[in-house]
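hey so i finally got around to running the thing on that chain from the lab meeting. sorry it took forever, my laptop kept dying and i had to restart like 3 times. anyway pasting the input first so we r on the same page abt which one it is
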Amino acid sequence: ILVVEDDYTIATNLSHALKKMGATVVGPANSVASAMLLIENGTALDAAVLDIHLGAEKVFPVAQALLERKIPFVFTTGYSRAALPDDFAEQALCEKPIDTRALAKLLSARLDN
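ok and heres what got predicted. didnt touch it at all, straight out
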């Protein structure tokens, strides 16, 4: 599972939680560029967790690349669903602070589709 999160503490905690649930974590990537590098270099990805706001940039180019590759993902944000552009309005969203059990359920549902 690719983790894209610019906050070191959140990224570390999320990675540890996903590993405890049996996932193999890729990253974490803290920028659009670093996430795109992982995607474009052929890293095997089953799913991704994407923080919407990565410093001054937004994660939407990463989300688009994942959609094109049919890799499911869940957005995370401290904001509401209104932060999503129309193109991504139907995507799964987990609000911060992240409830890792709820996130696991969302990821599982995305992987089952």
